[in-house]
Amino acid sequence: MLDRKFIRENRDKIEALVEAKNAKLDVDQLYRLDGEVLRLKQELEGMRKKRNELSTEIGKQKKTGGDASQLMAEVKAQDDKEKELNEQHRKSEDEYLELASWLPNIPDDSVPVGKDESANKLIREWGKQPEFAFKPLPHYELGEALGIIDFQRATKIAGARFNVMCGKGAALERALISFMLDRAGEKGYLEIYPPFMAARESLFNCAQLPKLEDDMYRLPEDDMFLIPTAEVPLLSFRAGEEIKTAELPLLYTAYTPSFRREAGSYGKDTRGLIRQHQFDKVELFALTKPAESFEQLEKLTADAESILQALALPYQTVILSTGDMSFASTKTYDLEVWMPAQGKYREISSCSNCTDFQARRAGIRFRDENKKLSLVHTLNGSGLAVGRTWAAIIENYQQQDGSVVVPEVLRSYLGGLETIIAVKD
RNA sequence: GGAGAGGUGACCGAGUGGUCGAAGGUGACGGUCUCGAAAACCGUUGUACGGGUUUCCGUACCCAGGGUUCGAAUCCCUGCCUCUCCGCCA
Asked: Closest nucleotide (CA of A367 to C1')?
């Protein structure tokens, strides 16, 4: 949610925003409703004032045994008008809020302007792409040959875009989660283990709603959703709270699965682990003072990058253009890991500064230097998407004989295992 | 799932129809005292929106949404949440 006064006083910026982020809403209607709400509210408050004054007077009369019937009739006389005004005001207000909830957050000035991902900009590259004396295989072929992942049988359980990991494959997934959580813990993030389902309000606070309702799995009887990212529970964890200023910045990390319907992505990445309905992720999340959030974004991004570096996986860091950014973000870095079989970099993390956009919806505040209640800023980043990391390891560490070398930092998590080899049957 | 109790300001807690935005306490802040600190004492301390804009005025808010009433934190209804007991269950 954007600040209402800001919207009111910056129509030019709002129009530019709607253009830059490809938002779909009727700006004229938004401003018409805002004006109407203000007008109705003023009129309504005037009537309430009169009613309050008369009621007080009636109270006094009754106390002293005077006759209040005249006054009571006077109050009664404005009932209908007041009721109607109230109704109109509420209706306009609801319509306004509904419309305003479709306004995305405003991109930071440092973000490249562009319609889509073609305008994204490379920030830096890290690591050397491995050279193979043979044609590197995709992770799904290798993984199936090694017997550590099974896409075929997963369909019997849940259909397409799911997977079953087996043996060392399952252990590798678990090792990655533990490794990432441990690293985040070392960097000062508090580990959180939250619910994997969330109420409608949590999704709205996070700005997954209203825009992404069709992209989520829903439990209609309870009006709950399977979380599409740990960002949802981590934001709502402190919703409605006044955070003690000395506590900021608050850093949280959480492992959760993420559930996404991937509606509208038919035919994209149909093979392998890149695009699944359920995938594991270790999330990094931060609440900061406003003045520190962009600095925190650099730190948080660096923290995510450090995981890739520790795993010695080549990657590049990209800043997303205005048209490619998510709804709530003002500035987003994507980390893209090298996938040898595709010969491409693929997104493995996305780190965003949502400034006060989510905090306003969730009501998370603190006392600033002037002791005024202010909204905190929220940031989130994957650190990292575990399934895609799994895939990147299999592909980057593959050997000619079809085995996969285990990255050194993971070996202690796998009982010292150095190489994943095919299970003989 | 069944029965009961309850949800009040940063926190604890009083308040069962009018003068209650709300006692008291804690915390925080300012001051007195002190070399300094603690203690003690005095004072200050809600949010949002709208209007005027130098300290001002108004409206709303005592979980949320409806209702009764001239008037509701206080009465009624619904929902959500918490606690206790029973049942069920990993």
From this structure: B10
Is residue A68 pLDDT above 80, yes or no?
Answer: no
Question: So what's the ipTM on this one?
Answer: 0.86
State, as a whole number of angstroms, the distance between the CA of A289 and the C1' of B48.
Answer: 21
pTM confidence score? 0.93
**Nucleic strand B interface residues, CB < 7 Å:** A 4-5, 8, 38, 41-42, 45-46, 48-49, 51-56, 58-59, 62-63, 72, 75-76, 90, 242, 372-373
Closest C1' nucleotide to A54's CA: B70
Kindly state the helix (H) or strand (E) to which residue A293 belongs, with its residue range.
Answer: helix A293-310
In eight-state DSSP terms, residue A319 is E
Strand A377-385 versus strand A164-165 pairing type: unpaired
Question: CA–CA separation, A404 vs A418, rounded Å?
Answer: 9
Question: Which of A293, A114, A325, A376 lies closest to A211 in space, CA to CA?
Answer: A325
Contact between residue A191 and residue A230 where contact means Cβ atoms under 8 Å apart? no
Tell me the pLDDT tens digit for each residue of A202-258.
Answer: 999 999 988 888 899 988 878 889 999 999 999 999 988 888 888 889 999 999 999
Domains located in chain A, CATH noted? 4-100 (1.10.287.40), 117-420 (3.30.930.10)
Question: How does pLDDT run across A159-170, given as a tens digit for each residue?
Answer: 999 999 999 999
Round and report the angstrom distance from CA (A97) to C1' (B16). Answer: 37
At A315 the pLDDT is 98
Distance (Å, whole) CA A314 – CA A110: 26
